[in-house]
Every structure is written in structure tokens, then in C-alpha cells.
Amino acid sequence: MKPIHHHSRLRRRLLASATVTALVAAAPMSAQSGVCSQIVTASMKMYDSPYHMYMVDSAQTDARLNGGKPTVSEAISTGGVTYYLVHGRWRKSPITAADLKKSQHDADAANKPTCTHVRDESVNGEAASVWHSHSVTEAGTSDTDMWISKSRNVVLKSDIRMDVGGNMGKSHIMSRYEYTNVRLPAGVH
């Protein structure tokens, strides 16, 4: 039997990984003939804009660690720094917006998604375009649906399904994003 602190460290790594995944996987850079440009443009704004992300990961990975319950978490990004909520406490991520931007750029060469405009609909009363992207990389297969504001051109929500195979298996991360009144979490600097 492994010590409890091992599971805690693993959970934190998975949460940090899920946060990175939610941001990087939701922002495929490569595009076939500019079709993905709507997704790229909206996603790139996240590196420069403060946001508060609410995320639910209902992956099989978390079910093993979390007694079969989805993991609910939050991330706040402001000033190029991301904070995430772990066990009721906010923690500063070692991964900066610049790191994420570089990761996205580095993945660009291998990531060749296909992108499709699916439909238009409303998210909390705001008109949005729904886009679907599918990509296959050496890390796994990813299918992402993104709701992009028609007026502000920012990501309002995303639904990411990844299959990385092996022990990590499948991941299903649903996120929603808020861009107004974003503040540092209480108790962090």
C-alpha cells in the first residue's frame, strides 16, 4: 500500500496536467487552410486575458483516485500566472502563461487538427459559435468542442475528450470561462 501523500502528489500532478490539457488541447494551433483560425484566435486571447475557469473532469483516471466521483476544480489566470484550487486551497501553478504559449507552439508542428463549425447557439445569453476540432498526436487522440463568443471572440466553454491510452486512459474535461471581475484568489500573492 502506498502512503497517502503519494496519492496527494499524484492528484496534484493530474490536476495541473488537466489544467494544462484544458488550455492547450482547447487551443490547437495548426490549421488546414485557416479553418481553425477562429479557435486559434479565441484561444490565444487566454494567454493575455484574465479568466476564471471552472472545470469538471469525469475521467476514468480521476474515478480511480476520487472514489468514482468527478473532480471539480477551478483555475484563475491573471498577470501571466495561473492559480488552481486543490483540496480547498489555492496554489500557484509553476506553469506560466508564457510556458503554456510555448507548449502550444512546440506542439504545433505535430498537431494537425481538423476543425468544423458545428452550429451557433447561446451560452448564458451570449451568442456563440460552436466549433469542433479533432486531432491525433503521439500523445493521444483529442476531440474538443468550443463555444466562442461572437461579440468578444473568447472561449466561453469547452468540452474536451482525450484518449491517451494505457493507465491514463480516457479524459473528459468540461470547462466554462469567465472574464469579468477576475481577481487573485484569497490568501495568495
Shape by Cα distribution: globular
Q: End-to-end distance, in Å?
A: 37 Å
- Characterize the main sheet: 9 strands, antiparallel
Please tally the β strands and state the result.
9
Quick structural gist:
It is built from four helices and nine strands, in the order H-H-E-H-E-E-E-H-E-E-E-E-E. With 189 residues, the protein is an alpha+beta fold. It has a nine-stranded antiparallel sheet with strand order 4-3-2-1-9-8-7-6-5.
Structure, described:
- With 189 residues, this protein is of the alpha+beta class.
- It is 25% helix and 40% strand.
- It has helices at 4-24, 37-45, 60-65, 97-108, and strands spanning 51-57, 71-78, 81-86, 89-92, 114-123, 126-137, 140-149, 155-163, 170-178.
- Strands 4-3-2-1-9-8-7-6-5 form a nine-stranded antiparallel β-sheet.
- The termini are far apart.
- The model is unreliable at 1-21 and 23-33 (pLDDT under 50).
